[in-house]
Backbone:
């Protein structure tokens, strides 16, 4: 039984939903490369293994027989853990996450003892039980979210789970002092819930300032696909022509993403969102031109 299979089953048995991500491999020069085959992959070891999970996060499951099939056939795969049933605070010290968290704890008090994992990039994932009656969605620290270097993975999101391999060559690992066997996820602190809660009325929309920040400031690695999807959906929902949407989002990606996604990846994302928007319109009896 593979290490990743063991890990995936461990998460499933604790109530999680998992799916396979591309893993990392050595090349002849000893570098770690994504198994997708792209030498310059922007999301190495972090994006869905489409051969087994063609719908990515939407394929996440808790059915053991499916999980066994996936990770037996792809023992090299990294483990993606869908969030929502648990909320994850992603602390990225490369973007000031450690300092941001220290400042927030100085203001609100230390976070409760809870499950934590160390990421392969030198940061940490801090796990919480979701609050009842409040939906916590994804947000990014460099897009007007909680604080710089602090991302939230909630409904509609996922993280890379231990013992997956990072592009650095390091593995994701459970914190020795905060292992889920010893320290279960704690409830989210009230101040954190208040900072992250969003209205659940779908008609309320987003604060326009969020879109202004996104367009002006852009996003960093790990948030680009979501941001491209959001911008594409915003434009298409307002009946901007699909080709115009594609060109605008390509230009924004080059100017504001750090680093930019490949043009092919942006085309793929915009095309996917456009197809979903067409289906939505047809479902409502609207003919797209």
Residues:
């Amino acid at each position: 039984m593979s290490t990743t299979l063991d890990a995936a089953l461990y998460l499933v048995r604790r109530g999680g939903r998992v799916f396979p991500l591309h893993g990392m491999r050595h090349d002849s020069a000893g570098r770690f490369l994504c198994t997708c085959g792209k030498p310059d992959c922007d999301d190495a070891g972090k994006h869905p293994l489409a051969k087994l999970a063609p719908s990515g996060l939407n394929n996440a499951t808790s059915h053991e027989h499916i999980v066994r099939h996936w990770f037996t056939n792809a023992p090299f795969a990294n483990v993606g853990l869908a969030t929502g049933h648990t909320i994850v605070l992603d602390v990225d010290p490369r973007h000031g996450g450690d300092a941001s968290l220290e400042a927030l704890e100085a203001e609100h008090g230390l976070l409760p003892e809870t499950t934590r994992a160390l990421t392969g990039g030198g940061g940490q994932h801090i796990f919480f039980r979701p609050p009842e009656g409040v939906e916590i969605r994804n947000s990014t620290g460099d897009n007007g979210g909680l604080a710089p270097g602090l991302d939230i993975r909630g409904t509609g999101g996922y993280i890379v789970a231990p013992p997956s391999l990072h592009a650095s060559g390091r593995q994701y690992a459970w914190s020795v002092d905060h292992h889920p066997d010893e320290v279960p996820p704690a409830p989210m602190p009230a101040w954190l819930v208040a900072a992250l809660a969003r209205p659940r009325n779908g008609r309320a929309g987003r604060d326009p300032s969020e879109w202004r920040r996104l367009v002006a400031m852009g996003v960093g690695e790990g948030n680009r696909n979501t941001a491209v999807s959001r911008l594409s959906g915003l434009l298409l929902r307002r009946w901007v022509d699909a080709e115009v949407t594609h060109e605008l989002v390509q230009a924004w990606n080059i100017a504001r993403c750090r680093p930019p996604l490949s043009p092919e990846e942006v085309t793929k994302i915009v095309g996917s969102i456009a197809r979903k928007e067409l289906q939505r319109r047809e479902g409502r009896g609207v003919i797209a031109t």
